[in-house]
Amino acid sequence: MAAIYSGIYLKLKSAKTSWEDKLKLARFAWISHQCFLPNKEQVLLDWVSHTLVSNYNKKLELDDEVVEKLWTYLDNVIHSRRLQDLLKSGKTIGLSFSIAQVINERLSEACSQKTQQNIGTVLNCSSGILSTPSLCIIYTAKCELLVDLLSKLCKLACQQLSSDDAVGCQLFSVLQLTFAQYLLIQRQQTNPNRVFGQVTGHLLQPCLLLRHLLTVRSWTQADDNHVRQHLSREIRNQIETLLQAGLFQAELFSSYKEELLPEQEVQEKKKGAFKSLLLPVNTVQTNLGSDFCEPALHGAVVAGSVSLLYKLFLDSYCKAENHLVCFHMFSRLFGCLRLSDLQQGGREDMLSPVDWSTELLALEQLLSLVLSSDIYNVASDRIRHKEVQFGFYRKLAQMLLSHSQASIPAWFRCLKLLISLNHLIVDPDLDDLVSSAWIDAEASEPRTKKPQETLINTVFQTYSKLRQSPRLFEEVLTVICRPAVDELRPPIFSAGLTVKLRECLLELPPNQILDILCLFVEKCQTLIIPAVEGSTDMALKLMAVCSVLHAFLFNMRSLDDVTPSPVVLRTQNLLAKIQKGIIQPLMELLQAPRREEEKSDLWLRKASDTTLLLVYTWVEVDTLFGVSCSKYVSPTAEIAGAVTEPAARQGHFSISAFLPGLREQSWERVMEIANSFASPSKYCLELLTLQKMKMILMQAKADLQTLQHAAAFILESGRSTMSRGESEPWDGDISVISDLTYPTAHWHLVVSNLTILLPYISLEDVQYVANVLLETLMLAKAQEAAMDQEPSISTEKISLGLMHSSFLPEMKILHCAFLTRLIIKFSTVLPTATRDPVDLPLQQLFASNIPWHEEILAPCKTLDLLEVPSENKLLKDELSLSWKTLEKVAQCIVLLAKSGCPVTLKESQLESCLGLLDIFSLLKLDSFLPSDCTRCFLVLLSLLANTRASVSCSKLLLLKFLSTCLHLLRCLQAGRNANSVFKVLHASDVLEAVMISQFTASKFFSDVLTVPLWAQYLQEFHAFLEDFLQMVIERRQSVRLNLEKFISFLVSCKPDTGAAKSKDRKNWNPAAEQLLLMTFTTLCHVVTLHLQQLPEKKLHSADVLSALLEPVVLQMVRTVQHGLQSNTPNQLLPVAFIPSVTTLLKADLSHPVRRGWQKEPSGFLEQPRIKLYQEFYSQILRELPCAGHNLQFLQPALQFLTVFCSVPELYPGKEAAVMVGFAIKKLLSGPAITTQVIQSMEMELTEVLVQLLGNCSVEEFYAIMRLVLQGLELRHVWQQKAKMQTKEACQDPSLISIVVVPILETVAALLRQGEGVLVNPHHVSLAFNILLTIPLDHLKLEDYSGVFLGVHEVLFSVVQCHPKVLLKAAPSFLNSFHRLVVSVMHEGRQKGDRGNTDEFEVILQCAHLVERMYTHIAAEMEDFTVFSAFMVAQYVTELQKVTLHPAVKTHLTEGIYHILDLCIERDIKFLNASLPAGVREVFKDLYNDYNHYHKAKKQGEEKYTA
Predict the structure, then answer these.
(1) How far is 1164 from 1156, CA to CA, in rounded Å?
(2) Tens digits of per-residue pLDDT, 390-432?
(3) Which residues partner with 903 through β-bridges?
(4) What's CA 1374's distance to the chain center, in Å?
(5) Residue 203: which residues within 8 A CB-CB, separation 6 or more?
(6) Over the Cα atoms of the chain, what is R_g?
(7) Closest residue by Cα to residue 365 from 409, 417, 404, 329
(8) Are 45 and 77 in contact, with CB atoms under 8 Å apart?
(9) Cα distance between residue 794 and residue 787, in whole Å
(10) Residue 168 neighbours by CB under 8 Å, 6+ apart
């Protein structure tokens, strides 16, 4: 052994041994049990450490490869299981401090070389050392080494984050571990100055840079997922903890205070004591100001760091007495920002837009912290500190306003925060604020629009509360009247700001609003109107002022009969002044004759816009005040009688009567200017015209001709712009209407007022409106995604809103016209055919010579049918003509379908048809007349039966098209006019046409039979057939004839790839086969269902229908057998097969010979049929576990098993029921089965299990139950978090309804089995442990209801079924029940408006359950008397904390009265003596009510009880 020892040690020390051999020896010595060195592990660690240290000290010169191998050896030793086991056994093994220095130096080299290659092993060594306590001492004993390591790792992490390389996990894992070790050491250090020095000297800069880079990095998929999701957040949190503990310890506050407070205040406080030499703020500022990173990053890092440092400072030191210190810290940290240079007169161009955004964001965060921490007390600052804070904030506001940054959201937010601190900070510069942040601000982007509106809303609220709104709007007026920076200013009131203004105006006194309006009117009269002619600038100012007048007049509170008379009089005078002082001069200006070229001048257009906007505003407000306030007298009252006379005299529409003194000729000149451009003027003319219509309609006798002229004028006004099809969204502001927003505004006006316009427009105009509606809807479908993100009004949104509204069906003429336009659009999409137009069905459905609208227009015609019989006959002839046309079209569709000459559609045409079908689906089909319903049916039938897709078309698109057509046909069948189609078509013809077309289309689908769209298509096909056949039978007209024809057609069908009647099965088409099977199944199901419902008197009809079904059943059997033979072995059964076999089996089971089944099976079924069912059953059992979450297969498969298991004779084997149970268990334990899947097939599962367990033997029952108990692993529930416990499930709100409620139901069901099953009382008491983990607060109401009911049922089951356990575990029971009482009190407390009645009903139900439990305890549990006082004490203690809703309180009070019945006099005295003062008062009130109401009533009942 000595030889071995001396040999290895000497060879490791010998210079003659090669390093390769030394490393081999060292590895052998470490792992070999045959090598016995004294203290071998320590010797080997010392050797490798010494070697590495010597190399870095230049005492040895080793190759890089050898050095790397030495590091690898050290890493292997540190991470070896042998070392860990030795350390756990208590053996002392350590490393030298010099190895820590070497590791730090190696990392330092990597930092300076900016390469991280070949340091992975070193990082691994660091990780191993830091995670092993006995080795970690080399860092923890010398904190400087740990600080140095942390600094180097931070710099390496910064380099990796700054590079383009993907971020790996290793470095950040070591960094996180190092942070954790340092934070542990930092908390143990007793010298705060030393810790401060370590952090500021070595860690502050790299930590701040690292935090910034982690925050701003755009993570990619290439980056390590663990770093991205977890480590980055954890490291940021560790940095904050490190800075908090290092820079802002409680012991350092005196140093901060000395440095931050002015000299005299410090001297007063310290009374001449010596100042500390530590200058913490200056040290931090120096760190932030020095160049510790690239210049391009420096500003952003500092900006992101100052808010963090200030937050940490406030968290440590912010108390009421330290607010001044906190403010000075804020001002010093603000000095670190580049914004502070601008306060000192720095150049604005030194900051780029990105820099501005970063700096303002930092300032916003600082100001938010000041505001939220309540640092600025206005009174204290003024009285005690000579407004030092106010002065600083004033300079800050001046700097922000003098360097406007309206394109940056944070700029608006900073100003808002300053106003929130004290409005006087900004008040001296109110005009600059109004100008730069509102009137002249170019904040058009949504991200800046919202903060701008928030700022201006804050200004509105502030000045309205101070009752200084007139001063605010005086400044607004001043800014408007200044020379504009640009030719066109943005609108003063956006849609959002108008809402904010409305809210403020509702709070303002009426006289203040009138003061503001008078101010604007006077400025208009004196300054703007005299100079407006020829001046574009003045015209723009006029528009701005008048838009403010419009906003105020439209959003102020209306006059009514309770408005004070002086306010009414002032308002009258104001409107008179607007009319005479503004409107009349402007009208006179517009009436002046002008040359043609002058009419296009901008000033004239703006003057026209302003005039008509003001006229409309004036007329609307004047009319409203006249209607709502009886004290109001209109300035035009003397000519009120002339409103309709000019129009009546002239025989056409005019608005001149609105304005006294305006001649008709002058008005025509104004209209000429207004109508020459798509502008606010044109829109206002439409509004005025509409207002005139409303006023005429309010009169006793309306002038029909005038109304028709007015309606035609409104539609004609926008016809040319709407026909161009170019429009932009509009925000609702009249003053900003342009060429592109005018169509939107016009369409909004038309659609909003259709109920007024529609009775007075011609049929051609109705068709025009229908056409525009259709065109805009087609655009809406194309731009659906973009529309959702657009907050403004658009033509597409308006049209969609009309389609979804309940108004369109009421406008029958428009509804009908829209259908006609839709049919025309379908016909234009379809390709032009070479055949005679008479053979094209769709073109005949909108023929202009057919009176399609006559049924709607007929009631409107004022005809006396007794006097004019010829007119009546003409009307009937017109109606019969439309039905004859429909009949002709129907025959044409059927003939085309049977002749097999469909129109071929390209993919683009198919997509267009789908888009139109989407619009078709928006129609309210029940609102159509019978003829229009028939037209709809024929359109859909023609699309289905007379078209086919080209070979190049997408098969999935074709499936979607066919499914949509079938779905819409089904919707029509469900309508009230469904029978109208049978006036023009035989049912068998419809079915035959549909079947032929679907067989023809199915030859495309042979390779898409497994996609979900195919299953969806089959479902729609089945639903259509079922509904249609059901309707045919329910009509009871030619039922036998229609079914005979249809069955005859079906029996002759052979689903091949060619014609429907081919007898060659070589080209068998599986898609057509499934369609045929689905048809057979549906037919059998509907007829069988009808037979079962027939009364006994109609047995002859039953025999006839049964005879009809016989060939169907035979053909169905042959088709199923062929399909099963040709099915691919490793593929699931086709979806159509399972319902077919189920239907066959049901039909066989309902056979009259069913009664003799037990005696003679052959009398019931033929042996081949039994074999078919048994083979199918075996196939289902094989495929069931493999189906995954395929509900289209699972649901029908379980339905088949339900029917099959209802006849035990079909599976005579002993283990058949167990096999079904095993297959179901295997299915449910599969990885694809989720809670949603189980919920979707819950009904089918229940039915099959009921049949299975109802018919099985005792042995099979026990075998199935064993399978169920083995399967209670609930793997499908615990996928997210494996092996979660009930308590953990309760902590996840999403699992409440999925896991917690079923667990409670299961526990309650087990407890209800009684003491005969649950023999051990301990098992019952375990239920209380479960109940105590269940949360009853902070739940959604639906979850709360389920959990409450579950807990109550568990407790009630214990009370009813386990009384012995209840007495022993009474405290646990009462604790659980008390939690229910507390939760009901919390949910049922008084909340003002209770909101949703259904939700409150749930609370009442829970309160009733608590009452029931109290009553049951009092009635049944006599031994509970000892706990009655305790229960009452619990109740009143909680009652004292809340104010209950009366209905809830009634239930709870009735319940506790029954517990008070158990209390004896000693209990009452005990409660009065022991309860706290406030609770005692509640108890006294409860006990008095108990004696007065409940006890007296009870004694009265006992008196008369035998």
Answers:
(1) 7
(2) 999 999 999 999 998 999 999 999 999 999 999 999 999 999 9
(3) 947
(4) 42
(5) 147, 150, 151, 154, 242, 246
(6) 44
(7) 417
(8) yes
(9) 8
(10) 160, 224, 227
